[in-house]
Design a protein that fits this description.
18% strand; elongated; three-stranded antiparallel beta sheet; alpha/beta; 13 helices; 17 strands; 435 residues
Amino acid sequence: MSGYRLAMREAVKYIKNNLLVSADELGDDVLLNACRTSMASKILGPESDFFAAMAVKALTSVKSVNNEGKARYPVSAVHILKCHGRSALESELVDGFALNCTRASQQMPTRIDGAKIALLDFDLKRHKMQMGVQVVVNEAKEVEGIRQREQDITKERIEKILESGANVIMTTKGIDDLCMKYFVERGCIAIRRVKKEDIKRLARATGGTVVVTLADMEGNETFEASNLGTAETVQEERVGDGELIYLRGLPTQRAVTVVLRGANDYMLDEMDRALHDSLCVIKRVLESNSVVAGGGAVETALSIYLDDFATTLGSREQLAIAEFAEALLVIPKTLAVNAAQDATDLIGKLRAYHNTAQQSPEEKANLKYSGLDLMKGKIRNNLEFGVVEPAISKIKVRLHRRACNRPTGNRPTGNRRRRTICRTNDTILPSLRPA
């Protein structure tokens, strides 16, 4: 394992000293290029220009600064909604938060300005006696009195919420007709069956608190105005075959929503995954401000470097480092095979380019950015052509692999013990010895 760890440290050092490029040197297009590279092999590849611009605008819109003064770009602030119908190119970016929900009643208003939002995690329905409670009555009119009292309790609960100033009520559970009647009379918007993850995001974005019960510490039922979130506008709009609820002008953090359009669920799910991957790539480029050339350039350069480095060692670590270097070539080989290219020929040429770059670092410096052009089946300078990836991804992957290979107390010992290195579908077993 010491050989693998040594190879990992040398690989990370070589990336930082030789292959890493500052994003500032490449200009404003580096984000678009990194996003296009991420989308190239996915369903959004043919329309990567359109979706790359959308993803970059979405993530840069939610920029925030932490207590240390560092810029942060939370991917969770970009909400992705999927809507059937129309072309993928009719997807849109909305400045605000959108929910795939509708008003509980068509008699409620479709728009409220200066919204104060109550976020609830309990049912809004007619109060009923608890299980096991027995009420003995002597006359039929007393039964009607019990029902009336149940309605009054329900009305009192709704009034406590409305008296706090709430005019938009969202709950993760249901709302029955009796409660809906009170909301309609007060001109409020009530939205039911909101997903829990959505209501938690809304709590962060609006500055509100998710309330799970009206009971306080003294056993009474209250609803504090401090639990309310705020938004400039809450509006229901028709999109495709249904309606969406849009919240705009959120106070605590900016939030944007990408409404994806597509033919069916399978296409929309793939688009969602591809767009999320691209947002994570943009986040890493923005926060680390460094990129490396893609198309197998980094892996091939490290393979050549570690091969040469291994020959300088006179210990058993030499074999482990050589295996580490060979394992890195699996990535460019897989890229070539998936593109129906001659992997043997292309990888041989790519290794020759990087060997020349490392033998003559001053004269052939640009060759270290050489990678695969899988459309034409040749080698090119991928940095010039905009095929880039976040440098931190390459570095952290190798550090993570070291952590995965670190022995733990629960791992079996003796001749059952094995080590796994960073190679696709490849496990190296040490020679088995008698226990």
